[in-house]
Amino acid sequence: MGLWSARSVTMPTTWIALDDTDSYEGGCTTWVAYQTIKKFALSLADFPALIRLNPEIPWKTRGNGAVLIIANKCSTDDENIARFILSEAQFGGKTSPGVFITGDKPIGTMWRRALTDVVTPRVLQLELKNLEGRPFCRNGHARGLIGAISAAEHVWDDFTFELISYRETDLPRVEEPRGVLWMDSLTSPLTFLNYDRKANKPLIYPSGPDPVWFGIRGEDPLLLIGAYHLVSNYPENPWMVFKTNQGTNEHIVEKPSIMDAHPYTTVKLTASVEDQPRMIQGGHLLVKLTDLQGNTFEAIAYRQTGELVKKAALLRRGDRIQVWGAIQPKIEKAMNLQGLLFIAGNALERKAPWCPICGHVMEKKGQHEYRCKPCGTTAHDEQTEVIPRPKPESEFLPSASAFKHLMKPYRRRKLDIHYEFNEDAYEGPSKMLNK
Description:
The chain has three domains: 1-248 and 409-435, 2-Layer Sandwich (Alpha-Beta Plaits), CATH 3.30.70.2200; 252-347 and 387-405, CATH 2.40.50.1010; 348-386, no CATH class. The protein has nine helices and 25 strands. It has helices at 29-39, 78-88, 110-116, 121-129, 143-153, 177-187, 221-231, 307-312, 410-414; strands at residues 13-19, 49-52, 65-72, 98-102, 134-137, 160-166, 191-192, 195-196, 201-202, 212-218, 239-244, 252-254, 266-273, 278-280, 284-291, 296-301, 320-327, 334-344, 348-351, 363-364, 370-371, 378-379, 383-386, 394-396, 433-434. Helix 3 (110-116) crosses helix 5. The longest helix has 11 residues, at 29-39. It is elongated.
């Protein structure tokens, strides 16, 4: 976990939060933020923040990310800034851009709900009544205000950084898989989710029509700039470093029972395996579980999660595990599995005995009797075998290609010490972008 924290800010500031400026046809909220900083020559008081919100929201465009810019007080009128942001936004489909501008950090609670649940227009209206600041939207559609206000309200616990580099959208993305693999080897574990070695493909390049060229995620912004130069052959391309909540598991809420969970949320539960996992059509794995209060539910590990399917298939009836995943809206009390923790399980298995005479497996002939079909030898005791089981506290996650933005990867979990950002080498957030 990065321990860098912002230097104390004594100068007056302007907080500019924006969300939902992209569409399926293009655009990117981080790019609009970069353009805003450049357009108004903003002097940054902190890193621009990229706040990922609830990944299960059905009307998100792509990654459900809002952006916050904290600038030293600028002379530009709030309306001019908001007008520019809205003019740069994409309009179409589910897009509903929103901007929130204030002079100080708003104190509110909506951000937690936006991160873990669904925020209704009613909740938004109640929040606006209690906040100082100016909301801006277009045509009365205010969904983007939910993300914008939540980004401004967000309270940091754990955090990471991401360097995002941009491209001309009329040019194809130039990918350098070997360069990404080399960079990953040199910067691990302080960068993460750069390359899926099992699938043999880079993960830093998006696939949509947006202006993002690539993004490198990690613990140290200065290291990310070095990683950028290892990958990029175009140093003149614009880039910016964001402070983010990516890779933190901040979207997961622990619940005592599946009955306390509802659709479009991501929950963590302790449960026991009810039956042997079974493969269903499509290569997906179905695991029947019972929570601590005796409620039965199903967890589905989809084929696309790769390694998670393989590990979940090794579970046995009676195993005690902790699972986390998204609650499905269409199947009652069903979870899309995102990870599991093995707590305990039976390592002994009772099987039909081997025949001591001819070595064949005996067949059961009665409640406590076995008989060898080839030679007729009988036995009355089952055979007990020790079977290999996962170690207690073993954690199983999807393949790197299946990770969502907020999911905490292995590399961050394996850091056994807190990584401390070298503030002596830090030259200020305005050095964290290429103008």
